[in-house]
Design brief:
This protein is mainly alpha-helical. It is about 80% helix and about 0% strand.
Length: about 325
Amino acid sequence: MGNGREFSARKAGLESRAIAHNGAPRGTLIHRLLATFDRTRSGGSLHRLMQRRSTLAFVMTLPLITLMIVLVAYPAGSAIYLSLLDRGMTKFVGLGNFTLLFGRERFWMVVFQTSLFAVTAVACKAVIGFAGAHLMHNIPTRGQRKWRGMLLVPWVIPPAMSILAWRELFDPSFSAFNWILGHVGIDRISWLAETGWARFSVIVVTVWLGAPFFMIMYLAALKSVPDELYEAASIDGATWWQRTRYVTFPMTRNLIAITMLFSLIGGFAGFTVVNVLTGGGPLGTTHVLGTAAFSVAFMGGNFPVGAAVSLCMVPVLAVAATFILRGIAKRGSDV
């Protein structure tokens, strides 16, 4: 009996000490700790996962990834699947459509024209844009706004409207260019009816549409170059060309490469200029891969071969993008 009373007293003392120390009975505290442990075990891993920067970055880019899958991956996969079918889209022919294309001389003419337009236009846009950016950079700040607005007009106006205006300028009967040539004693030129002049016209319009974008990008790059570098070069007696070569180019070459890459991709995937200006004529001598694929698929009714034509530009662009981006990454690691 005495032992039972002593045990009860000790238990009451321990409980009173637990209450005094922890503010709660020992049993209640244990239950709370167990409940907290259960909640931590169920949600702790998710909490730790969400605290990682990589997980947070993935969650934030998930809408963009989903949009790219819907708008890019699915159409690309459909095009690849379609290019492996026959004309009736009922039989699997493998790479037969590509073999058919590679054996046609007309296809290689289209590849040559696409490369000619893209490379020539990018080179001209880069030179004109770089020169325009330098001229704009030397204009006082107040005057830059007005000139920037004026020079951006070709890039801001919808391309179809601009190309239609250029088509009127190249019209054989009412061409303003031919009117000027006639007044200086030069014969009229069939701008869109002769192969050489039609290709020249396509390049001119493409450069006119894209040069303002190059100028704005290069102007932004020039604004980021510290003036102290130019001042130091001038003190050392460097000429304008030496300052451009040893200061401007090294500081802006990454942006120049990225801009040229985007323009090259747009040139190989071009459609609007040729479709509106020449329609691929005369006799298909201005067709590019985009307009050729459209013509074969929608005009000729051969969708698998049209899909194969459109996919032929992918390897070229992938190789060009790989080399350019690798060079940018290498130069970035050297800095």
